[in-house]
Design goal:
Chain A: Keywords: Membrane, Transmembrane, Transmembrane helix. The complex is a heterodimer of chains A (about 210) and B (about 700). Chain A is an all-alpha fold. Helix content of chain A is about 25%, strand content about 0%. The radius of gyration of chain B is 37 Å and the shape is elongated. Classes of the chains: A mainly alpha (about 210), B alpha/beta (about 700).
Chain lengths: ~210, ~700
């Protein structure tokens, strides 16, 4: 009823239901009836008896571990990239972005900033145009040069924003803020821009 | 060489999933960006403080007390909101450049991120950029944290796109100082305290409403005769801006000859330049944001395509399955053209490989012997070096017709081959050590072998332990997934798997292909593929029923499916050459391997991303579409399931578990596929535990024969 079929040691493979061991390979001459002329049955038998021996490692298995090491490296690199990416986004969303402060310059003492050309040209035109809303003096960064600033008609104006308080970021600011065009402004009487604020008081920069 | 399942990839996948989620969120958030549109104004808005409403359009709030500036005479500061837009902004830039004019662009952060090149061009041509929030949110009604986030992100986007930060800010939906409401003023104050210069406007042309070029020009030129300067509000995005472009041309043409200058806002107000270069660190962070947003929008595009393609494929599969199932049933169940002779029934050998099957081996052997098969047959139990009492139990049964073979442990394929070598009959039936047959199973199983073209027959596996949710899901899966598929494979002659639980083979065929191969974990799939490739037909016999014990715990289920999936991939790879071969092998390869590759590997691999995208669509897009799609799909699957159950003569009731299956079971199967692919890529070698048998059949008397 039983026959002992011995397995030849063979190559490793991924076993289905047991710890790794050699696959089967029947030794010819297994116990059983005495040998007789091979019939087609037995030829099939023999073929089957020798079957199932893997030529090498099972499919996909890389015995040297090279693919594993390579994949590990790639995986670590990708992981690091993702962490850096998420971190940068997190920092970008969580921390505030610095807003460059805008100096509201004190009048007169600042050199004229490049690119603000037309003070002279404008002065010429502005004069004859008359003022607009002179009663509401907006502060203008173009202010009269030192000392000569007439009192701003702010007193007469509505208690509007600008007049009285001085520039927040005045002398402290290094930005060559607004260009004071010097002489031009004082020469234009009615122009609202010509009226500089009472720049006696300078507020601390915020 | 490392042994065991790979594990590190889960962290990577988690990170990837997180990144994908963040990108999807970013895209959804950014595309809430809309242009100027009518919004609900409160009925009686509370005006801002009068000093503001009567002041100029440019506000500085840094010092705690607001200061405002007015535009000098004969100076027009053209401002363009909501850009940059790839269609309209270049045209406006061209107009400005042609006339030597400059303007200020209050850009929306999301658009900056999408058009970094255009942003740089705006700055290059001497114009200025201010902030208009990231998604054109109404700052008056948005909570403080949102407002700050929007402005911060806009600065970051600007830094990433053009390497600058801006001082200027204009609130969306703002207009002239006169019209400022108290809530808007509060929002402006908040921004101002952070250092922004808040910009309103003198002349609101409302060009976004497209009133006509004439009207726009007229509003912009309101006080031209008096030579007043103005800040003019226009829009360069958010719709058809052809009128705006024309209007800008006309405004410049009319006013420039009269001595007006068209400058940037900072130049007009004699303020320092609005855009300041930033250090490298800011640029890097900003660039990440810009890159993320651009990646996100292309990602959602691709995911949408994938989603659509997956949907189409699944529907196609369902249709094909149902069609071929119908064909199969018609062919198999129609009465034969001529009466089938009652015999002869060929001699059978039933080969039972057993490894540590002491729990169920007795029931299996008894059920095999308790059959109505009229021909001669023997049962060969191959004890594959069991460590428990399997061999002793079989010996103890001492039943006639049962042979026991003992061999050292060598795996299932070797056991099967040993049993096949020891058998003397023409037909072999290979079963599992825990399968239970019905009385008529053998008779039905062997019947198709009367056709000499048939090389192997697949039986019909059914789940015995259907109690509990897991059992029910597997029951549904076996009936719908496996058996419906097998009908189609039978008709198309591309059967990938004759289940190891119940399969009949011709011995010469088995010998010719070299026996059961052992270099994959799914030797049943491997064997069937070899047989198909050699030109033999493999058919599905629905009436030959075998009851198996499905895994009852999640861990065991995972193990089983991992083995099946990985083994199937191994077999597919091993037989990949059949894709390009001709003849029967090529036909099989192209049909079977393509089907398996698409539906067992590719689609499940992408399924988590597609699911995430569906969730995204639910939240950010119109939720009706995904819901309808999902409902339609589930309905189609339920219909197919009902049909499959009915074909098999099963009750329809367990189908209620199908919609639930979509959420948990399907996800589990994704993970299995992912794990299998990673294992294959890494080339890991696996050590396997056995599936613990609980002996479902030990105490149950043999099943009665089914009808038919």
């Amino acid at each position: 009823m039983d026959a002992m079929i011995r397995d030849l040691p063979a190559h490793r493979h991924g076993p289905d239901e047991g710890p790794g061991a050699a696959p089967g390979h029947a030794v010819p001459g297994h116990a059983g009836p005495a040998a007789h002329a091979p019939s087609p049955d037995e030829i099939g038998s023999a073929a089957l008896a020798e079957a199932g021996v893997p030529g090498g490692a099972p499919v996909f298995v890389d015995m040297t571990g090279r693919r594993h090491r390579l994949a590990r490296r790639i995986g670590l690199a990708a992981g690091a990239l993702l962490v850096v990416f998420l971190g940068a986004l997190g920092v970008g969303a969580a921390t505030g972005a610095a807003v460059p402060g805008t100096p509201w310059n004190a009048p007169s003492t600042h050199p004229r900033v490049g690119g603000h050309q037309p003070a002279g040209a404008r002065a010429g035109k502005a004069g004859p145009e008359g003022e607009r809303r002179s009663e509401a003096p907006s502060r203008s960064p173009r202010t009269a040069p030192s000392g000569t600033s007439p009192k701003v008609p702010s007193a007469s104006s509505k208690p509007a924003s600008t007049a009285a308080p001085a520039t927040p970021a005045p002398s402290a600011s290094t930005a060559p803020g607004a260009a004071p065009t010097t002489a031009a402004t004082t020469s234009r009487p009615g122009n609202s821009h010509a009226s500089p604020p009472a720049w006696g008081h300078t507020k601390k920069p915020a | 060489m490392r042994r065991g399942e790979p594990r590190g990839h889960w962290i990577l996948l988690l990170l990837g999933g997180l990144a994908l989620t963040v990108l999807l969120l970013l895209d959804g958030y950014a595309h809430g960006a809309v242009g100027e549109a009518p919004r609900k104004d409160p009925a009686h808005p509370v005006p801002a403080p009068s000093q503001i409403t009567s002041g100029g359009p440019v506000l500085n709030l840094a010092g705690g007390t607001p200061h405002s500036l007015r535009t000098p005479a004969k100076t027009i500061a053209l401002t363009f909101d909501d850009g940059p837009d790839p269609k309209w902004t270049p045209r406006i830039l061209d107009v400005l450049r042609r006339h030597g004019a400059h303007g200020t662009f209050f850009a929306v952060g999301a658009h900056i991120a999408e058009n970094p090149g255009l942003t740089r061009r705006i700055l290059r041509e001497g114009n200025e950029i201010g902030s208009h929030t990231y998604t054109h949110v109404d700052l008056a009604t948005a909570p403080a944290w949102r407002a700050r986030l929007e402005l911060d992100l806009t600065q970051r986007a600007l830094a990433g796109a053009a390497g600058v930060h801006t001082r200027l800010m204009r609130m969306p939906y703002s207009s002239v100082p006169d019209g400022l409401t108290a809530p808007e003023w509060r929002a402006a104050e908040r921004a101002g305290k952070d250092g922004y210069v808040v910009v309103l406007t003198d002349r609101d042309t409302e060009d976004w409403q497209r009133p006509g070029t004439e009207k726009i020009v007229e509003t912009a030129l309101a006080a031209e005769r008096r030579g007043q300067g103005a800040v003019v509000m226009l829009h360069d995005a958010g719709g058809d801006r052809a009128e705006t472009v024309a209007a800008v041309e006309q405004i410049i043409d009319r006013l420039q000859p009269r001595g007006y200058r068209f400058t940037t806002l900072s130049q007009a107000m004699r303020m320092p330049a609005a855009d300041i270069a930033v250090p490298g660190r800011e640029k890097a962070i900003g660039w990440t944001l810009v890159a993320a947003q651009r990646t996100a929008s292309s990602l959602t595009g691709w995911l949408g395509v994938l989603f659509g393609a997956a949907g189409v494929l699944y529907v196609l599969r369902l249709v094909l399955l149902l069609f071929f199932a119908h064909v199969h049933v018609r062919r198999v169940r129609r009465p034969p053209d001529r009466p089938v002779p009652p015999g002869p029934y060929p001699d059978l050998s039933v080969i039972v490989p057993a490894y540590n099957e002491e729990a169920g081996i007795a029931a299996t052997v008894r059920s095999l012997l308790d059959t109505d098969y009229p021909g001669a047959f023997e049962v060969i139990v191959v004890d594959d070096g069991s460590a428990d009492r399997t061999a002793a139990i079989v010996e103890g049964l001492a039943l006639p017709g049962v042979r026991l073979l003992r061999k050292p442990n060598g795996g299932k394929p070797s056991a099967l081959n040993a049993g096949a070598a020891a058998a003397r009959t023409e037909i072999l039936v290979l079963v599992d050590g825990d399968t239970v047959f019905q009385r008529d199973t053998l008779r039905h199983l062997v019947a198709p072998l009367a056709d000499p073209r048939v090389g192997a027959v697949s039986g019909n596996t059914k789940v015995a332990n259907r109690g509990g949710l897991l059992g029910r899901w597997q029951h549904i899966e076996y009936v719908i997934g496996f058996n419906l598929d097998r009908r189609m494979f039978d008709v198309l002659q591309c059967m990938p798997t004759v289940p190891g639980a119940i399969g009949a083979f011709r011995r010469p065929v088995l010998a010719r292909v070299g026996g059961v191969p052992s270099d994959t974990l799914a030797e049943d799939t491997d064997l069937t593929m070899v047989i198909c490739r050699s030109g033999h037909r493999v058919v599905y016999e629905e009436k030959a029923i075998a009851w198996t014990e499905a895994p009852s715990s999640l861990r065991q289920l995972w193990r089983q499916r991992y083995r099946w999936c990985y083994g199937t991939m191994q077999a597919m790879w091993k037989h990949r050459r059949s894709l390009i071969e001709g003849g029967a092998s090529g036909r099989f390869g192209r049909r079977c391997l393509t089907y398996l590759a698409v539906f067992q590997v590719l689609l499940p691999l992408f399924a988590p991303a597609v699911d995430l995208f569906a969730l995204f669509g639910l939240i950010f897009l119109n939720p009706l579409e995904p819901i309808l799609l999902w409902a339609g799909f589930t309905a189609a699957q339920t219909a197919a399931g009902a049909y499959a159950l009915w074909l098999d003569g099963e009750r329809i009731r367990p189908l209620w578990a199908l919609p639930l299956q979509q959420f948990v079971y399907r996800q589990l199967m994704y993970l299995v596929v992912v794990q299998s692919v990673v294992t294959a890529l890494l080339g890991s070698r696996l050590g396997w535990h056995t599936i613990r048998r609980t002996g479902t059949f030990s105490d149950v008397p043999p099943q009665p024969a089914s009808t038919g």
